[in-house]
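agent: user wants the structure for Molybdopterin molybdenumtransferase from Roseomonas elaeocarpi. delegating to structure tool.
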Amino acid sequence: MIPVEEALMRVLGALSPVSAETVALPEAWGRVLARPVAARLSQPPADVSAMDGYAVRAADATEGARLALIGAAPAGHPFEGEVGFGQAVRIFTGGFVPRGADGILLQEDAERSGDSVLVRETVRAGRWIRAAGLDFREGESLLQPGRALSARDVGLAAAANHPWLTVHRRPTVGILATGDEIVLPGEPLPRGSIVSSNAHALAALVRAGGGQPVVLPVARDSAEALADTVGAAARCDILVTSGGASVGEHDLVRSALAPHGFAQDFWRIAMRPGKPLIWGRLGEVPLLGLPGNPVSALVCGILFLLPALRRLSGLERCETPLTRAATATALPANDGRQDYLRARVEQVEGELPRVEVFARQDSSMLQLLAAASALVIRAPHAEALPAGAEVRMIELGNLGI
Ligand SMILES: Nc1nc2c(c(=O)[nH]1)N[C@H]1C(S)=C(S)[C@@H](COP(=O)(O)OP(=O)(O)OC[C@H]3O[C@@H](n4cnc5c(N)ncnc54)[C@H](O)[C@@H]3O)O[C@H]1N2
Ligand code: MOO
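agent: tool returned. relaying C-alpha cells verbatim.
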C-alpha cells in the first residue's frame, strides 16, 4: 500500500493538459485559459472625465471666475476644438477631455447661466481626469494561461477587445460502473440488485471539476462485458471505473483489462475509505479504478479525480485546499491508513471553526456523506487527540460538490 501523497504525485505526474479550443466570450466563464491575453487597446483610450461637469484650464478656473461655454463633450462624442483662456466645455463622465483643458469643474461646483459658467470652487490641474491607459495599455499582458476565468477576468478580456478566447477543452471523463448487482436509477430492480449511485455522483463531481462526463453502460462482472464496454472509452481523456477493485474473484477490473492493454501503475493505497484504488493506463487512456463502496468512490473522486481534472484542464494549481479546525470530540489514535472522516463544520466567530466528526464512518453510508461538510484528515499513526485539538480538513463546499 502506498501513501496518499505518493499516489497523488503519480496520478498527476502521468497527466498533461488537454488541447485548446477557441470559444466566444459568453462561453468563457470557468474555462481554463490556454493562451495569454494581452490588451488590444489602451483603456481608457484617451484622457477622459471621471465626472459630469466642465472641462477647463485649471489656471483660469479659480473661485469666482466666469468662463465662456464653447461646446459639449458627452461620452462617445468628443469635442474636436480646443479650450482656450477663459473658456469651458460641458463634459460628462467618460467624455474625452478636449485639447487645452487640464481639469474638471464639477457640475455641483458650477453655476451656469446661458453660455457662461461661474466657478464656485477652484479647480486643481488633473482633478477628475482619468489619464489615457490608466487601466491598461495596448500590448500589456493581462491574463496568464492556467487560470480558470472568473467573471472579473471575462470583463477584463472584453474591455481589452477580445471577442474570443483560447481555452483548454473540457476533459472528457468516461465513467464506468461495474457489477452484476448494479442497475441504473429507475430500472427494474431484480432481487439482489442495487441502484448505481456511483456513476451519477461521479458525473456530478466531474461537472463540478470542469470536465465533461460520459456515463457508459454498466459492465457486468465478466471479463468480456468489461472489455466490450471499455472499448467505448477509447476517446476519453481519462476513464474512471467504480467497483471491481478489490480482492474478490468478481473484482475484475485489473485482471479483465490486462489482456486489453491495461498497464497498472499502482493498486491499493494506505487510506480509508478507498484502499483498493487502481491507477494505470488502458492503452493510451489513463484509468482510475475507484472502489465500489459509494463513500469510498466519492472520497477517492475528491482526492484523486478532482486534482486529475485540474491537471487535464490546464489549471496551474492542482492540489486540494486544506483548512484548519478544532475537533469537537476526542479522536482515537489512528492505524497505518490515512483517514478521511465525514464531519460537519460550524463557524465560530474569532476562533477556528469547530468540526464534529460523525460517530459512524461506514463507507456505504451516502446519507452521512451528503450531510457532511468536511472530511477531517487523520494521518497514518496519528496520536489520539482531545476535544478542542487542531485538525486539518477538506471543506466540501469549497469544491463545489
Ligand atoms: N477480503 C477483502 N474484502 C474487501 C476488501 C479487502 O481488502 N479484503 N476491501 C474492502 C474495501 S475497503 C472496499 S472499498 C470494497 C471495494 O470493493 P470493490 O471495488 O471491488 O467493489 P465491489 O465489490 O464491486 O462493491 C463494493 C460495494 O459497493 C457497492 N457498489 C458497487 N458499485 C456501485 C455503484 N455503482 N453504485 C453504488 N454502489 C455500488 C456494491 O454493491 C458493494 O456493496 O471491498 C471491500 N472488500
Ligand atoms: O476503501 Mo473501503 O473504502 O475502506 O470501504
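agent: one observation worth passing along. The pocket of molybdate ion (ligand 2) is lined by residues 272-275, 291, 293, 296, 363 (CB under 6 Å).
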